[in-house]
User: Fold these one by one.
Assistant:
Number 1:
Amino acid sequence: MCGIVGAVAERNVVQILLEGLKRLEYRGYDSAGVALVDTNNHNKLSVVRRTGKVIALANAINETNGLGTIGIAHTRWATHGGVTEANAHPHSSEERFAVVHNGIIENHKSLRDMLTQKGFTFTSDTDTETIAHSVALHMQSTDDLLSAVQAAVKSFKGAYGAVVMDQTTPEKLVVARSGSPLVIGLGIGENFLASDQMALLPVTRRFIFLEEGDVAEITRTSVKIIDGNGDIVERDVVDSTVEHDAGDKGGYRHYMLKEIHEQPLVLRNALNGRVSSEGIAPGIFGEGADEIFKQTSYVKIIACGTSYHAGVTAKYWLEQYANVQCDVEIASEFRYRRSYVPANSLLITISQSGETADTLAALKLAKEIGYMSSLSICNVDGSSLVRESALSFLTRAGAEIGVASTKAFTTQLAALLMLVLSIGKHKNMDPTVSANIVKALVSLPAKLEETLALAGEIENLAEEFSDKQHSLFLGRGDQYPIAMEGALKLKEISYIHAEAYASGELKHGPLALIDADMPVIVVAPNNELLEKLKSNVEEVRARGGIMYVFADKEAHFESDDTMRVVQVPHCMESVAPIVYTIPLQLLSYYVALIKGTDVDQPRNLAKSVTVE
Ligand code: G6P
């Protein structure tokens, strides 16, 4: 989703801004722009914007010869106003103030009316332009940019992470955060800011994460932060622990393929020091976690997208193995409904980014309505969700660049199995079951390596999907959410319509759709539901459906005219959802490759959805 980069330095910042934007490309965007106080053009405010990729913007800036020691830049993912150059950020006012903004100013219509009445002329359809003119309005009664921004934000309703630059004071940037993340990057004699630390890793690894309500003034040598109460505050400086370099595809054609193949490695990292043949290590969910788990009698999991599918899988596991009641809900639903909170409820949020607006809002609500405690399972240390939850657990997947989530999902599942063991300890979990889960987890990285060897076979099979418009994914029990995730992956990157059903629901509707043009993908490990699943397969066969079955050898499926069987390495039941995810990821990747879509940045989608 939208990305922000800003810099104030002694050197030319154009390349820093462009490199920052490139590093944010993975988040998804449709246009990009840069504003500079242009030393090659009499220190005038120079704004260059382009629809399409950052490379088009870089070419345009090359042509203008733009140069400056202070600048702001943005990748836009359209919310208000179409994808046009005029709607791209930065937006400016009076050829003096430039603004980049993530989030949505919800009262932009009334602000636009008020500002128009006061003589400001709008040149875009965006909500963001109201920020530029509001700052200009408040600068009529002060000569201090920080005070003008503080006054302006008081009139905004909604979410914003915004950066303001004033051409007449080209030594400072002013930023404001409410609802959309912003991080300040500290250099030596230069400072930076961004919506995501990834953007700044080539120039610094020292960061200050702004908090809700903060407004800050940043110069080359100073950072002044004022909190929501108007007090000057010091915020911690954090050394980044992000290890992976976003710029490296490691020889793979796409980040997504690289990330699929990284899964054995990142799973090893995720398990390291937490589970071994000795069992689950104590205290891995943080200080006080055991006390909280002991008291927990109900778990509510909240997430969006792929992370939601991890949550649905965990519901099966927590109830089946750890004897604790669990419900799962999509964050955007939970946050806007009145829900019942049983006593001793633990709220668990799952998120790759830790910045998903709906998930953050759900956490905030849960605190208000009486949840006993909160735990975040997240891939990004220092993210808003991690900072705002009582307990946090990092999935250690490393930076995930492909918009379609892969390794983040399987590490979330591993984290959730570790949670099952940690909560189960306090809930009379059967020791044989927990010993089996430990064993399954320890051997999981090797099992994933074995499963990745199916890539060639799945690449061949993908040919058969290239002319299909629709598809159906079937699974039962804890494989139902895996079927959901498989369908999501296929639709996200190949644009083939895909639906997932719990196989038992087949005859309650989707059976009507079955014909030779509707491939049916079945996940069939060898578990107690296998015979039921086989009956569902026969129902599809009887209606002329063509099936692609991912099955355990012991499940005894045979390929024939109507069924292609891919044998998945035999694995223990508890980790089967993780193992069966791999072939479905590979299938969607190879189908997308044949269809020639933009695998890493699928159309209309964003990696981190920071607006609701
Ligand atoms: C977006 C991404 C998905 C992701 C979802 C939730 O839709 O494209 O891949 O699953 O957001 O994101 P989170 O960072 O909270 O896991």
Number 2:
Amino acid sequence: MAGTGSKQITAGQGNGLPRHIAIIMDGNGRWAQKRGLPRTAGHAAGAETFRRIASYCRDLGVEYLTVYAFSTENWKRSAEEVSAIMGLLKKYLEEAIRKMRRENVRIRVLGDLTPLSPELRELIARVEAIDETLETHTQANLCVNYGGRDEIVHAVRAWQADPCHGELTEEELSRYLYTAGMPDPDLVIRPSGEERISNFLLWQSAYAEFYFTDTLWPDFTEKDMDAAIAAYRSRDRRYGGVKK
Ligand code: FPP
């Protein structure tokens, strides 16, 4: 494997299955608009797609699936849309409490959760308490009120406030990110034709492979995931090194 210099970089399995896949679930609004539906219907369809794709990733043996559910910038949307997305998250977490053992996917919520409703925060705590007891190889991370820059500032502050902190290195700072202890994403997927990072996993995706598709997120299927993984497998990951 290339990039032997740094322990900080978590290598994927070369041309194998990505250990960690991250997705910007984009295109829900356009999907709804095309059908003459309110944007919130697009998010509901997007949440369904997430359920399906998370199960598929579990079946494939992917270890981490991280999705961008609500960014630090999404508060700028209408109160109706914000409340619809929060409602979908609530519904999903309530369902997870009932079905987690059957689904066998561990769930974590990453982001600054302080502005979320006490009800949602309590649900998150309950889900995360159950997942401690699950024996599963798959973890789904829902990024909520998440911003990559915000995460880095939060990590620096947490490092500074920690009386036991070590010398400031890349590895040390990684311990204070929301993704502490997880491998970096190998593959970042953005559907809907947009080709930008939008403040998602800025630190962690330093060496990720990117896959873009015009498919809108609610239309994203297992076949699209297969195509993304196939593209990933054909890439030559060098981590800034040269091919041996
Ligand atoms: C981006 O599409 C999508 C979002 C900002 C929200 C994504 C949230 C969900 C799919 C629901 C979350 C719930 C669970 C259970 C994961 P967009 O609205 O920006 O689409 P557009 O670019 O077409 O307008």
